[in-house]
Amino acid sequence: MATTGAKTYRNYIGGEWVEAASGESFETRNPATGETLGVFPLSSTEDMDRAVEAAKAAFEEWRLVPAPKRGELLFRVAQMFAERKDELTEQMVREMGKVRAEAAGDVQEAIDMTFYMAAEGRRMFGHTTPSELPDKFMMSTRNPVGVVGAITPWNFPIAIPSWKIAPALVCGNTVVFKPAEDTPLLAGLFVEIFEEAGLPPGVLNIVHGAGETVGEHLVKHPDVPLISFTGSREVGAQVQTNAGPYLKNVHLELGGKNAIIVMDDADVDLAVDGILWSAFGTSGQRCTAASRVIANRTVYDALCSRLVERAEGMRLGDGLDDATDVGPVINQAALEKIHSYTGIGKDEGAKLLTGGEVATENGLDRGFFYRPTVFADVEPGMRIAQEEIFGPTTALIRASGVDEAIRIANGVKYGLSSSIFTRDVNKAFKAMRDLKTGITYINAGTTGAEVHLPFGGTKDTGNGHREAGQAALDFYTEWKSIYVDYSGKLQRAQIDNVEQPAP
Ligand code: NAD
């Protein structure tokens, strides 16, 4: 794990690539091999102050750039993401660990989102509505808010920044971006593309470093009225608390404990495909990962045996090898947390069907690999059925009928994604109505969102806002209602147009 020769990277503040004021640094590593990929500034609150100052100054001009022009810039960015897709994909496999096809999907999501939001530059519709008074015109418009603090996790290192930064910019805000410590290289490449596309200095800034220092400082900074945060429930709650005294607008996208329901009438082979993709794709490190499978009693045994057989056939390895099905998890702490849940599951009396161990053969010990893990005989209240594990572990729970299955699916504190496999349209519609999640899939796994529908969850998964689609614009703008009176006289709403009672 020699660091010699690893390239040194910088923050991007006010249009300049600059070192941290402290001169301190941290490294990013390949989770499959341990190779050091780069050295990044371990920034301090001083660096964050500079970035916010630059973003605040840039806002005064950026907000006046016509929205279609802001959109044109995003079209260029989207095009450049597309041109550099292979490079970004390969870097993602190396820095984050997901396999090549999934990394390419992550980049594609950023391309789609940036094109989508670019086009909003020519929409961003407001409303007009008739006045109750004569010779009076009324409309509402979307207005930018100011500096957005964008704080992101490592698991979708290109897609998630695009979910926040593309809508923030097209709406006329400026941004200070604090990426996850595990994927600074990709975050830097992301920002570099905006710079090359011609974004004016200060409109997008990046400050690398620790969440507890620069992240928290961004959240508490009085000149940052909007905070868009994606990460764990625990840190999200801290963000909400820290932003509270400043009355900021805070958008939280947090964890999940997503369930796939398999009904007696389901296509079991299709369900197994959906479960494998949702539970073990990205090594289970997706907020939408299926870490619970709620199976009806008549399909339960068949599902167990097919899942075990398929899970055991999955090849672990470096995502750059096209034969790999499951890449590494992000770091040593994640590996230990995932393994600790195997112990918790066993202690709770669940039956470990397969996996449950760190994989070390054929050089896997250089990285952080965990075998796809399936627990059976899981009771809905067990910790492995309640807590987010964020690894390749799934728990099989028995249910009788759609009502019980939905009740179990809803019986967790999170509410991000859910899915049901059934051929019965009545059960499907019941699930669409009653599953208390922000996203529900019918006859597909729990992952696979597209950028033009809202993305987010209910309950502890968030605080009611949504990313993506038109819904994203609601967070990055504030409504302004405008009344134009061209009657030439004072007209008082609710008074002058109401018949007064006779004296
Ligand atoms: P995390 O909460 O540890 O970190 C997220 C970000 O917050 C990082 O950039 C980190 O540096 C920063 N941070 C840490 N402490 C902070 C503080 N006190 N103040 C401000 N910022 C701080 O999460 P993670 O491990 O990077 O990501 C995994 C989590 O993210 C999982 O819970 C997953 O479900 C969730 N996630 C949710 C979604 C969604 O859209 N709902 C998407 C992806 C990931």
Task: Give the arrangement of secondary structure elements.
Elements: E1 11-13, E2 16-18, E3 25-29, E4 36-41, H1 45-62, H2 67-83, H3 85-95, H4 100-120, E5 127-130, E6 136-144, E7 147-151, H5 159-170, E8 174-178, H6 184-197, E9 204-206, H7 211-220, E10 226-230, H8 233-243, E11 249-253, E12 258-262, H9 268-280, E13 290-296, H10 297-312, H11 332-348, E14 351-354, E15 373-376, E16 393-399, H12 401-410, E17 414-415, E18 417-421, H13 425-434, E19 439-442, E20 458-459, H14 471-476, E21 477-485
The structure holds nicotinamide-adenine-dinucleotide.
Characterize the biggest β-sheet.
Answer: 7 strands, mixed
Structural class: alpha/beta
Could you tell me the strand content as a percent range? 15-25%
Second rung of CATH, namely the architecture of the largest domain: 3-Layer(aba) Sandwich
Looking at CATH, the homologous superfamily of the largest domain is Aldehyde Dehydrogenase, Chain A, domain 1
Instruction: Estimate the global geometry from the Cα principal axes.
Output: globular
Q: How widely separated are the two ends?
A: 91 Å
**How many beta-strand runs?**
21
State the low-pLDDT regions, or none: none
* CATH secondary-structure class of the largest domain: Alpha Beta
Instruction: Report the average pLDDT across residues.
Output: 97
Rg from alpha-carbon coordinates: 25 Å
Number of domains: 2
Bound molecules: nicotinamide-adenine-dinucleotide
Total of helices: 14
Strand order of the largest sheet: 14-15-16-13-12-18-19
The portion of residues assigned to helices is: 25-40%
